[in-house]
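protien #1 (seq + structre)
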Amino acid sequence: MKEVTYYQCFLGENDARIVLKGRDYQPVGEMVFGSPTGGSRYGDLPTMRMRREELHTSIDILRNEGPLYLDKDDRSGSYFLRSDDELVGEGDSTPQSQPRSSR
C-alpha cells in the first residue's frame, strides 16, 4: 500500500492517463482510461485500467478526498484507490446535515 499525495494528468486523442505520485513526487501507480496504446509511461508501475467514463469521477476523488492509498487486492491481483474511514455526511454543508444542539 502506497500513499498517493500528488497526481498528474495526460489527456490524448485515444486515452487519458493519471499518474499517481507519492510524497517524493515519484510515480507509485497509474490510472489509464479509454483505449490505451502502449504500456506505462514510467516503466513497471501498478496500473488500473478504467473506462473513459470514469475519468471525471476519478479526478473528483483525487481532488476532494484524502488521504488516499494505492492498494492491491490479494485475491484478484487488481489495484484500487482507497481512503481512510470517514464520517457519514462529512463535507455536506446543507442545513439538514448540521447536528442539532441538545437542549
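ok now protien #2
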Amino acid sequence: MPSWMIPVSIALAMTAGVALRLGMRDRPAWLLAYFAFFLAVEAGLEHWALPPGTLGPEVAWVCLGLSAALIAINVLWHRYERRQAEEAEAGASDA
C-alpha cells in the first residue's frame, strides 16, 4: 500500500464521521474543505510527529472499512429521513 494512502484513509474516515454527525451530505464544498483539513493535519502529524513506520497498512484498511460503514449509515439515514418526511407530508394532507 502506498504511504500516501494512510493519511487519505484516516482523513476519509474523519470526514465521513463529520458528514454523518453534522448532516452535511448536501454541502459537498464543506465536505471537501473538511477532508482537505483532516488530510493536511494527518499528513503533517505523520511526517513531523510520528516515527517512521508507526502507522502500518492495517490502519489504512481499518479506516477504509470504517469509512465504508459510515458512508452506508449516512445513505441509509438520509433515506430514512426522506421517508419520514414523505409520510408526515402524506399524513398532513390526509387530515
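The longest helix spans residues 57-94.
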